[in-house]
Amino acid sequence: MLVREGDFGVVVLGRPGEAPTTLAGTGVAIWDALAHPCLLEDLIARLADTFAVEPETIRADVEPVVAQLLSAGVLESSS
């Protein structure tokens, strides 16, 4: 896996032949939070705490990004 970060956000290249995944905005915060393996619920709780919002509010941002990262092969599920 290849990762590049800059003012544009984060670009992650996962599986060979796959298009890169680009994350911006809250996607960058999600990527950074995933530096330490955790359960989805813990990730949501941590980010809700960081941004001072309700967990259900942040869930709407987190779940699609996590699904995108899983689909791209740059994130693995332990379940």
Summarize the structure.
The protein is of the alpha+beta class and 79 residues long. It has helices at 26-33, 40-51, 55-72; strands spanning 2-6, 9-13, 21-23. The chain has a domain at 25-79.
Instruction: Count the DSSP helices.
Output: 3
Strand content: 15-25%
Write the H/E string, N to C: EEEHHH
Helix content: 40-55%
- Low-confidence stretches are none
Cα Rg: 12 Å
Question: Averaging pLDDT over every residue, what do you get?
Answer: 92
Molecular shape: globular
Strand count, sense and barrel status of the largest sheet are:
3 strands, antiparallel
Q: What's the count of strands? A: 3
Structural class, please? alpha+beta
Q: Which strand order spans the largest sheet, edge to edge or round the barrel?
A: 1-2-3
* End-to-end gap: 21 Å
